[in-house]
Amino acid sequence: MDVSGNLNDVISRIRVAALKAGRDPDAVRLVVVSKTVGPEKVMEAVCAGAHILGENRVQEASAKMEALTGRIPAGVEWHLIGTLQKNKARHAVGAFGLIHSVDSIELAREIDRQAAKRGLVQNILLELNIAGEASKHGFTPDETIAAAKEVSALKKVSLEGLMCVPPFTDDPEDSRPFFVKMRGLLAELNTMGLNLTELSMGMTQDYEVAVQEGATLVRVGTAIFGARS
Questions:
Q1: Which residues on neighbouring strands pair with residue 218, listed in sequence order?
Q2: Which of 3, 26, 175, 183 is most buried, judged by most C-beta within 10 A?
Q3: What is the DSSP letter of 192?
């Protein structure tokens, strides 16, 4: 598996997609999804230019962080992109530069409490169940405005934007309407003075479409590390 070559290919495709949409390629950041990938492969990606590492599980991420202590260069961030249970919030707060997957008011409040204990402010995104799928977590589009208002009032979390995972499809164009809806919701929230900047959307199968529709963070793993069980 040519991790370096794959990473550079994804970065190039992000750039082309951004330019096609008239966007600044530097406005899009790549989250290299390193779930189930061992520390040495993670280091391979970092050495090839990965700046953000995305993990699904707090426990797995913590083990990698410990294994790579002293090896990860300054400036490389860890993001939590998978479901976070309330009882794991204390382990996530402060360990991740951004938590993408805040899917309830109760979780946001728990993160706020844990951040207050540590004397820090935790950056978060609200996870939206953009297609209303029974198998997925997150706020519905209709719940988003009220949720964003409530979460933005918390003192020890900083709401940075929104995240979604649209229904899986082999045709990336099927994801476009959901990405358009996400962009519209972010714009609506910003008319209320929330000043949100981040849209975390797009994965290996549809990240180029996501970039065209305004993603600022794309989460790509399979295209870099290959398929994982």
A1: 30
A2: 175
A3: T
- The CATH number of whichever domain residue 155 belongs to comes to 3.20.20.10
Return d(Cα 179, Cα 203) in angstroms, integer.
12
Please report how the helices 141-152 and 176-191 are oriented relative to each other, as an axis angle in degrees rounded to 10.
40
Q: How many C-beta atoms lie closer than 10 Å to residue 113's C-beta?
A: 15
Q: What is the pLDDT of residue 221?
A: 98
Report whether 129 contacts 181 (CB < 8 A). Answer: no
Q: How many whole angstroms separate alpha carbon 105 and alpha carbon 121?
A: 17
Give me the domain span that covers residue 188.
3-225
Distance CA 107, CA 121 (A): 15
> What is the structure's pLDDT at 1?
79
Q: What one-character-per-residue DSSP string does 90-118 give?
A: HHHTTT-SEEEEE-SHHHHHHHHHHHHHH
d(CA 175, CA 43): 31
Structure tokens at 35: 């779930």
Average pLDDT over residues 17-24: 98
Decide if pLDDT at 229 tops 90. no
Tell me what pLDDT residue 228 has: 78
Instruction: Please count the structural domains in the chain.
Output: 1
CB 215 within 8 A of CB 202: yes
